[in-house]
Amino acid sequence: MAEKKVILDHIDDVGEQALAAYQAHGGYKALEKAMKQMTPAQILEEIKVSNLRGRGGAGFPAGIKWGFINREAPGPKYLICNADEGEPGTFKDRKIMTSKPHIIIEGMVIAAYCMGLDAGYIYIRGEFYEPYLAMDKAIEEAYAKGYLGKNILGTGFNFDLYTYLGAGAYICGDETALMNSLEGKRGYPRLKPPFPAQFGLYGRPTTVHNVETFSAVAPIIENGGKWYAELGTPKSGGTKLFGISGHVEKPGVYELNLGTPWKEFFEDIAGGVKGGKKLKAIIPGGSSTPVLLAEELDGMLLDYESIQAKGSMLGTGAVIVFDETTDMVKVAYRAMKFYAHESCGQCTPCREGCDWYYDIISRIYHGEGRVEDLDRLEDLGKYIGPNTICAFGDAFVTPTLAFIRKFRGEFLEYIRKGKYGQETTGALPGSQTKSEVSHA
Amino acid sequence: MPEIIINDIPVAFDPKGSPKPNIMELARSVGVEIPGFCYHPGLSISGNCRMCMVEVGMPTREKDGSFIKDESGKVKISFMPKLQPACYQEPSDGMVIRTETEKVVTNRKYIMEFLLANHPLDCPECDQAGECALQDYSFQYGFSQSKFFEEKRTYESTNFSDVITPELNRCIHCDRCSRFSKEIAKEYTFTRTWRGNSTELATLPGDKITHNYQGNMVDICPVGALTLTDFRFKSRTWFLKQKEGLCTSCGKGCNTVYAVNKENKVLRIKPRYNKDVNSYWMCDFGRLRYAFFNENRRRNSLVAGNVATPAAATEKAASILRQAKNVGVIASAGETSESLQALSIFVKDVLKTPHVDYRVHTAQVENNTSIKSGEVLLVNDPYPNSQGARQLNLLPGPNGMSVAEMLKNPEKLDALLVVCDDKMIETPDFIEALLKAAAKIKDVILFSPYVTSLDDKTSVVFPLPSALEQSGTFVNVDGISQSFAAVIEPSPDVISVPKVITKPMPKTLAQTVEALKRQMAGQDNVKPTGAIT
Fold it and tell me: Is pTM beyond 0.90 here?
């Protein structure tokens, strides 16, 4: 079985969120080890050896990110835990926060100690009220035990940790929008460079990680980077949480070794398609990753590279399962409705493009589509993603176009049955450019 | 100095320069225009419109640092796969920028398509038409047919200012206006609200923009989303002559452009860039205070309240001044230095009276050159040329009386020569004091561009050119001399101070005045620099 509980270990124990229960299973031993037996350089080395990659979606190697911070630089430096878990289909961080919050805190203190950071913020999405209360309670406990605050474990290291409840904007999951929001500004992504390691929160060097990434730190320190790396593939170390939902027999959060075969996860662990129906497609890593057809999943392994080779992304590990009865036009419509609602509106292509995309797909879904609408989406898409300030443009164009390309027949069916079905020509109005217009 | 190459043109730059160099400005400096909406040199860089995206490449290097060259021996340039915003992109030595490639131009076409998708295209009834960036770039880059077949976004009509009339359906969300509000005017109530495609400019609920610089938000709005209430539907902009000049409403001397219609009436004032004086901005007080140049003008001379020829009025004035023993002179710091110089010579060498003063306002008495509290440009001194008058020493001589003393002790004078201006008319207390004093003085000679309540209480009135009909020099509160030409051709009826006072002078003195004028015109004038809209 490739299910391996590192982060989820004992997660469902009654009272696990309490400090005592966490410590009964070895909690905060890694912190003691890191601060009393290891130098910051040694901690960094273990993280590098562990091959831990960011679990928020982009998969950036954590060791390299930690190495960006110049711990000797004067002035305050910050640590941020991105708990704005907003990607549709994703519900793994919520599980950790509500059931095992201390593993996040322990990881953050180790990270802060390693990089010489002064204060940390846990930015929690606005809708996560229970996780917010759980984190606050855990932080209070950690302060009482001396794991946070002044002179942690008698080492002279000081680190304060705060929670911050967002206002419910998907875009604040982008680290620079998150920092703006944390500063009290509008949650607009920043222009890059500079990157957070140079100019982050309040213009200071800042490291931002996902909840799950921090949760892996304590186990890595406790068991060694090599141990963690060997749980995964040579390029993607360790375990990853997968939240599987949709038409699946046993939905939920599972922790798997990276590189676990898809078939093993889906059939053996998650119990296959609900009600014994046929699998149509899956979204592998949250709604921003392109859909994969059932036949594309043959031989696919659950790691960053293997899913990328199939033309999609591991993303947040949020698997959404669609059985044979699923209306993919409705899926695309519902997903696009979400993106149109969540675009921050800062830059032109996304602000205008998002609603435009939604309008077109909505028309198709409501029986007012034309064949040329599909070409229009392809045409506009080329100029949205590459032109936006943050990744949001790509996040809605790529999956939407994947739906259209892979389920074109279903879209055409909607169009044929709709209002303009009989009169559709396929010609694209409005495509003439000035040079094409003859005034001779 | 490090160098970048923009469309094959080498451009040197100073990496430590202030403001930080960017591709947009470097391109502009060699005549390469990169289109953009959100970029404004006077504001922070927002990079949101994505119109200025260009190709950015860097020379490729071997591991040892040497350049990789192609067969022809040219250094190979590696271009970034994505276009980069020219407004935000910092130059680095050897960087290669391409602004007119097919990739860049096609990208612009699509950005225009996105911007125009929800724009109402109501140019025929939009005040901005003719000076609209969206219109111009649409002409240059837009597709001839829209690709957008959906319902356009509309906003409920809103009102957040007494100076600005918003038409938010035209807004392209470049955020120049709210950045201006925060960064320059330091008022934080105006911002973008909501999000995504519903983003809407607004103030906090129930709030209004109250700062004195709102007109600038209209100026920098690249479209017609913010229109100046005062100028709304007054004229098509292409029927207006744009004349460079100075604002005369305070001592700052902001550089301006006056829009003048065919009837020689000023319809609008906009600021003009001058890095030493007003940057890109001007205040609403100065912007909206142009009625004085259009209305209530005095067009003829009066003698004892009756219309007279200029010659008759001059003759009468000369005879009064010849007979008077104690003459008082109230000069106006609204006059040019050239005019004041002539008056100064006339007072000191011809009238030989110590009772001369220009200090009508307390700020002039205190020589207060500071900016008013809470303001960005507007200064305490309401006069455009107090410093010029001060330099020319138009101040009481030994035993001479100041303005306040002359008004308090009119019985000590037999004649009072007053150069009246718009500021005095705007100060009823002063006019009242002047009226009271005039009643006790045998003869009052008044020079005024406007019809005033003093006119029939005086012996002689001369019609002066308005501030915009003069040409000459003003010295601002910071001691900067600025020369300017007449914005409006002076009407043939008006007659300037030097013209009147040269008449009773000996010829040689008149010649001296002329010579001085020429000399002054050549002094260290700050030449107005080019404007950026």
Answer: yes
